[in-house]
Amino acid sequence: MLLDFSLKEIQQLALQKGFPSFRGKQIFDAIMNGKNINQSNLPKDIKEQIQEEYPNFEIVKKLVSKDGTIKYALRMKDGQVVESVLMSHDYGKTLCVSSQVGCAMGCKFCASSLNGLVRNLTAGEILQQVVIVNKDLGGMIKKRAITNIVLMGMGEPLDNYENVTKFLKLVCDEDGFNFSERNITLSTCGIVPKIYQLADDGFSVTLTISLHATSDDKRKQTMPIANAYSIKQIIDACKYYFKKTGRRISFEYALIAGQNDSNQDAEKLAGLVKGLNCHINIIPLNDVKERGLKGTEIRKAYAFVEKLNSLGVTATKRRSMGEDIAGACGQLRQSVIKEEA
């Protein structure tokens, strides 16, 4: 797909097909601005030659939350549909993108893995989400409407490492959207070798760890990845990432009623991150009806945050956005795919 390529690669492809180089720039501008092929100003013969490689810019469904959050269901070229979520903040607009169709990680509180992994998204398909939403907001390549990107949608980004890192290069390319890596967050459940590789490969996005437990035994109850990598291994990898990048680590900690929300859990959590430059986002678990787990009540969530702060840990309760449209953390699922594909 053409969105898998940079401007220079598309110009080279144009030359290989016998087009002049400037046609490559026209193709690039058209796709990055979200124009369907018939909306482009390309000659008919060129359109015919690139039809199969041209991306699909279709919004299947668009839901708007009472808090202004927007959830998009976007169709890929092969008919698969992924969900992306746009959140508005004081500092700008953040787009949460998916990196896979479904998820193989099997976390017990998350809707995305209910039906397992269907397939990885290509770098261009991840970028396609940015292109479509940017256009829907009235943005252009050089005047984009999206200020921040979080890889927190469907899928485990580090389980699709090659495509995700290629996406990072494409979305940060100065010929394209020219995002700074400082405005991009990558969330992982903790695939330890890939955290080291991300640092060694020279990336400096904000790394966020989905932790959700204070002991390996507890973590194994809800996160199968804990059978492969211990919390200590994850913390060690985070220390390495910080040393290489200088970027503060974030931890996501979803409070599950009666499982990980006690004072003792807060004390253990503070001990785990002691000495690490980090921030902890506390999130009362969002409802996923098939999972049967309940989130901690708000009052107790604030008390958990206060306990962490009293222990010298920087922590805040993260505002849940888009829950009424199933667009909040852990709620993106394949149900839209089944209904709309």
- Poorly predicted parts: 330-341
The H/E string reads: HHHEEEEEEHEHEHEHHEHEHEH
Strand order of the largest sheet: 1-2-3-4-7-8-9-10-11-12
Determine Rg (CA atoms, Å): 21 Å
The proportion of residues in beta strands is 15-25%
- Structural class of the helices, strands and pairings? alpha/beta
Descriptive account of the structure:
The structure is a single chain. By secondary structure, the chain is of the alpha/beta class. It is built from eleven helices and twelve strands. It has helices at residues 7-16, 21-32, 44-50, 123-136, 161-172, 192-200, 216-222, 231-245, 263-272, 298-310, 335-340, and strands at 58-64, 70-75, 81-89, 92-96, 100-102, 117-120, 148-151, 184-188, 206-210, 249-255, 278-284, 315-317. Strands 1-2-3-4-7-8-9-10-11-12 form a ten-stranded mixed beta sheet. Strands 5-6 form a two-stranded antiparallel ribbon. Helix 6 (192-200) packs parallel to helix 8 (231-245). The longest helix is centred in the C-terminal third of the chain and has 15 residues, at 231-245. It starts with 6 loop residues before the first helix and ends with a helix. The model is unreliable at 330-341 (pLDDT under 50).
